[in-house]
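Practice record 12: protein with adenosine-5'-diphosphate.
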Amino acid sequence: MGLAIEAVNLTKVFGIFKAVNNVTLKVEEGVIFGLLGPNGAGKTTTIRMILGLLKPTSGYVKVFGIDVTRERKRALNLVGYMPQQFSLYEDLTVEENLRLYASLYGINGLEAEKRIRELLDELMLAEYRKRPAGKLSGGTRQRLALAAAVVNRPRLLVVDEPTAGVDPPLRRYFWEKFRKLRDEGVTVLVTTHYMDEAENCDKIALMSRGSVAAEGSPLEIKRLAYGGDLLELEIVGNPQPIVEEFGFKVLSSETRGGVEKVTLLVPDASLVLASLTRALERSGVKVVRAYPVPVSLEDAFIRLTASSYSLKR
Ligand SMILES: Nc1ncnc2c1ncn2[C@@H]1O[C@H](COP(=O)(O)OP(=O)(O)O)[C@@H](O)[C@H]1O
Ligand SMILES: [Mg+2]
């Protein structure tokens, strides 16, 4: 698999303010890649540089191997972009908006009509086809914006905060859509400041104050935040010798009603759960329950950005 995006050492300075600081992102083809971080982290600025809409102060970007500053037109033909504030023509109808966006990509005539019909169908817009964009509800507008962004069947779809201010059913619908596009081979780069949505991504880069604070799959990010997986044991007896033998760290332990609840930090919960339980039982410790502790990405992010703040100080 090749790289859909290769952004290397991107920096953007506005005046004396460094909005993006030495960001490197390598996005493999065919994944949903989430750029996450709070407002002001530098997500939109990074995206605009990736799309060749903003010239980096330093660094470079290639999209499918094409340098976006040198060959912007060629690169943009492979890309669909749904900006944070999508500009639709308010007094053109849904259909006319799509026709206009199609023509911008050189799709006209019968080919355009066919593609528009497909999109009206796919994004549940058929009943609104004759309605001016300015008269649509928020959710319908967002669906039209997405339809316009994929009118050219992009190999890379870039969506900037598509779910900001959107109600939960439509948020879910959008993520399903992104997954479907991904399964069809489209690479999706999506930004969001909703941490819980990140679970939908194959890979995540967490941005904080212009830099990438952490990168990896949701599971890897969680491991990075804690230095491993969390495993909880409910036991009767002394686990200390076995836990030491395995070299695991005890994060907490409390005893209630004769049962001790121990939280351990382990490298990979699914790999060690069975062998640890067996070893404990063999040493005479009764294991009432043993289970991996689900960690939320939000917790992980808070830990990771908190430590990156303290590193900077
Ligand atoms: N054109 C600009 N001129 C000056 N500052 C900007 C400009 N664009 C963005 N910024 C600043 O850069 C920082 C990052 O902005 P942005 O990339 O929009 O963050 P995000 O999309 O993560 O919310 C913010 O502090 C913002 O105010
Ligand atoms: Mg933004």
